[in-house]
Amino acid sequence: MTFSRGLSLGLSWLWLALFSILPLSIVLAIALARPADTVPPFSFGFDPGNLAAAASDPLYRAALWLSLRTAAITTVGCLLIGYPMALAIALMPERCRATLLLAMMLPFWTGFLMRINAWIGMLRDDGWINGALVLLGFAPARLLYTGAALWIGMIYTYLPFMVLPVYARLAKLDPLLLEAAADLGASPLRAFLRVTLPLSVPGIAAGVALVFIPATGEFVIPDLLGGPGARLIGRVLWEEFFNNRDWPMAASLAMLLLASMVLLPLAAWRILVRRGFAV
Amino acid sequence: MDLTVHRGELFVLLGGSGSGKTTLLRAIGGFVRPDAGAIVLNGADLGRMPPHRRPVNTVFQSGALFPHLSVAANIAFGPRQRGMKRTAVAARVEELLALVRLEGFGGRRPSELSGGQQQRVALARGLAAEPSLLLLDEPLAALDRGLRADTAAELVALQKRLGTTFILVTHDQNEALTMADRIGVMRAGRMAQVGTPREVFETPANRFVAEFMGVTNLWKGTVGGDGMTMDVPLLSAAIRLAAPTAAGPAAVGVRAERIRIGAVSGGNQLRGVPERSVYSGETVTHAIRLGQNGIVFVTEPAHGAAHLDGEVTLSFPPSACLVFPR
After folding, report:
1. What is the CATH number of the domain that holds B194?
2. pLDDT tens, residue by residue, B87-140
3. Cβ B66–A176 below 8 Å, yes or no?
4. Using CB atoms, which residue from A183, A185, A195 is nearest to B66?
């Protein structure tokens, strides 16, 4: 091993140890600690009770389940909207692609809270959407602080994280393969299903991971758009930490969330590999 | 362009880059739409048919194998799309793997095969749906030299055995001569000549084909009133022709291999000074200067080739002269 190789490897490991393994160990240590009326509000020990409670308490379970469900809906929504977008951009002539990608990214240069506030303005009872509905002769609908508003906000926010990896994969696809498929008798739809789609699976997998994992822990969008019913795990965790000051419980919930976010995509990926979709 | 390819024939489209040979192939495959005219296969006009409905398959230059599918699934792709039953497809795949001598390779991915093996899979995939016409775009270009001759011979044997009509595109005249039943030499989107390898090689229809088929000595001149001699100013010589030719400006071509060093009676004779010799293994090619600007190329077998010194006499029979109108 050369010196420079050793140095770069060593630095990577140091970085990982300092900013990933160490904080994670601290969180785990707090999860195993007991709550106490001190500053900080816990005393170190080995008490797996918090972890067990986090995993078994119906309230937390409901929150975790709601989070996973919301993240799943967000991921599917992003995929259904993002894949056709990515495909359309990839099929454009090369000189148009950069412009279209830029157009997609442009809104994301404004602040995140600004954009969510804009959605509140649109979704409000007297907002633009309801205004348009009334103008067209429909009854106004309750939108803000519903599940639909939450999903709209989530899908809107996470869409680029799906489009970009899928686009990157589709742009690399050899157009000759589609010609070959057509030549062998595949209609454009069949060629898409048997060639384009399977070859874009790694891009989809990357997009799913990039959307699903952060969406599971999301707590700002549910707080602003979802109303009091949207008790997602991120929000519950926030409450345990800042309102109840139960650090061991908050840390246990964080560990639980982490475990579910690591294990679920891993399981999904293994299924894909086993079924021969992933190259 | 008007071209008829016969059923069961191995037809080779030969031309340099930009001659339109690949475009013609893509038009038959359905990937380029002709502005005008018709492409008729067994009486049916393919003109407006999308590629996936045409009973024509293509072997692409790069192979264009599906990287995510196994060799067997690649071969099965065509028959499956045409609605063949699963069990029948499996049998067909085995049959084709045997045909291209890749038994046991069905489970591999294309990336696990060598270039030659990939090309054979591409061929098997093209043949799997039993097309009435198989198009091959430079199928040997990706192979290294040693493998190319063998694969060419195998391809011809396979075509003869199956009786499928092949249209093969190449820029390599040697490949065209050894493989083709007939050759179509293309230039700038037009057919410069269509004929058997022997016809195209021995009696090229025009100067372009002659040059493309390796006639290195091409001189401008004027055919005399008797139609049997041609005056070539560059060589300061009059050349006797074998057959009567219309008088007037023309060009004459003589293959370098047809010219002998030394005097041979009854032939055309020229005298010149050797300038340089190029050794290329089996043969040696001498460049002989005649007069001020005339260069005559003479090729002779390298074994026993004379070392040239001083003025030499060159002879070639009138029958070696190919005359083209100018």
Report:
1. 3.40.50.300
2. 999 999 999 999 888 999 999 999 999 988 999 999 999 999 899 999 999 988
3. no
4. A195
